[in-house]
Design a protein that fits this description.
Largest sheet: 5 strands, mixed
Strand content: 5-15%
Helix content: 40-55%
Number of helices: 17
Number of domains: 1
Shape: globular
CATH topology: Cytochrome p450
Distance between the termini: 47 Å
């Protein structure tokens, strides 16, 4: 078998199935694996956890003072026409996701006041209603393209409503989310950078309008909470609030879509799981923990090295980038027996770090868990005899940074 260092994570075949690469990491005890043009992949659970907490050495503030501008991760200089597009939007500064303690700690406290477990519980009936409304649209058709008819729309509607956006904005909301996430995680060429820049500017202009309205007329949504949030005696400025809103949009959208889609594919492949979950809905939560471990929706996030250091014998220069491999950590045999097997009742599945680790653990994880649990429960209640369409093989989105399907088509009978 090839050594871990011989894998090219940007190769389309490796991105479609990275698990041989992950096995090689653990077999070789590879502390860091270089990904050409991107950075060093850190894949072992103990190393990932340690680095995630060392924010003074491995910084989450990987944008310069120009703020969190999603230009891709190639490190190539920004083209003038792309700069012109970004300059058409509101000013933004590093906030929440792209800061480190103590600034991050302050912003995190503000957001946590909105993303409380009480708030999540309060909107669970609305999440359930959305799930059934979406199922109603395809239930009589005996087949569904699950990703874009269900897994995309459920979290998208929930978080867009929570941010105070109209239902008619949902399609734009999804486009903005996808593009900005690509700009934060993927390698982009010139044309892709322009697409991402336009979406970033459109999103911020829209959110700036809502933010200004909520400052004058607060409502019961997350943007109103941010509009009223204060650091000391001073309200968050728009340039601070906008990146936090963007982070909230991404945290409440893409990850949950992938979680729901990946969970559904596992159920389609294992009819016994369908029967077990239907008979005992309390198993849905540990089932989803195992999905997070086995097919992590976000495979990695980035950190910038603040001073020359090394991990094991691997040298890292100041300014270089490392990727914390949540996905490969979930396959670490030092933590999980038979890591390449999906085990429904795995006793320690909850030890996955699919939502991150340390100070930057996902702010929306409680919401994501509730959405996925309700989404799967509704499917189990409404559909049966679910089977992939004949001669159809779903394809993963071609990126190493996230793990989710481009589409997922199956037939069913309505219960």
């Amino acid at each position: 078998m090839p050594e871990a260092q011989n894998y090219d994570l940007t190769d389309s075949k490796v991105m479609a199935d990275p698990y041989a690469f992950y096995r090689a990491i653990h077999r070789d005890d590879a502390k860091v694996v270089n990904v050409t043009g991107v950075g060093g992949w850190v894949g072992r659970m103990s190393d990932v956890k340690r680095i995630a907490k060392q924010t003074e050495l491995f910084s989450n503030s990987y944008f310069d003072e120009g703020g969190p501008i999603p230009t891709g991760v190639s490190g190539q200089p920004l083209e003038e026409d792309v700069k012109d597009i970004f300059n058409q939007g509101p000013e933004v500064v590093n906030a929440l996701w792209t800061t480190d303690p103590p600034v991050h700690t302050t912003h995190r406290k503000l957001v946590n006041k909105a993303f409380t477990s009480k708030w999540v519980r309060s909107i669970e009936p609305r999440i359930e209603a959305i799930a059934h409304e979406l199922i109603d649209k395809f239930a009589s058709q005996s087949r569904v393209e699950f990703i874009h008819q269900y897994a995309v729309y459920l979290p998208m509607i929930v978080i867009s409503e929570a941010l105070g956006m109209a239902v008619g904005d949902a399609e734009n909301f999804k486009r903005w989310s996808d593009d900005i996430l690509r700009g934060n995680l993927d390698v982009l060429d010139h044309e892709q950078r322009k697409v991402v820049a336009r979406s970033f500017v459109e999103a911020n202009l829209r959110f700036e309008t809502i933010l200004n309205l909520r400052r004058k007329n607060p409502q019961s949504d997350l943007i109103s909470s941010l509009a009223a949030a204060k650091i000391g005696d001073t309200c968050l400025a728009n340039k601070e609030a906008l990146p936090i809103i963007n982070t909230t949009m991404l945290a409440g959208n893409e990850t949950t879509t992938n979680l729901i889609g990946n969970a559904m594919k596992i159920l389609l492949d294992n009819v016994d799981y369908v029967h077990q979950l239907r008979e005992d809905k309390s198993l849905i939560t540990p089932f989803l923990d195992e999905v997070m471990r086995f097919e992590c929706p976000v495979q990695c996030l980035y950190r910038i090295v603040t001073e020359d250091t090394q991990i094991g014998n691997y040298p890292l220069e100041q300014g270089s980038r490392v990727m914390l491999g949540w996905g490969s950590a979930g396959r670490d045999p030092d933590y999980f027996d038979q890591p390449d097997e999906f085990i429904l009742n795995r006793a320690n599945a909850h030890r996955h770090i699919g939502f991150g680790w340390g100070p930057h653990v996902c702010v929306g994880l409680g919401l994501a868990r509730a959405e996925a649990r309700i989404a799967i429960a509704a499917i189990l209640d409404r559909l049966e005899h679910m089977t992939l369409i004949n001669d159809y093989k779903p394809k993963y989105v071609p990126t190493f940074a996230t793990r989710g399907f481009q589409d997922l088509q199956f037939s069913f009978c309505e219960r």
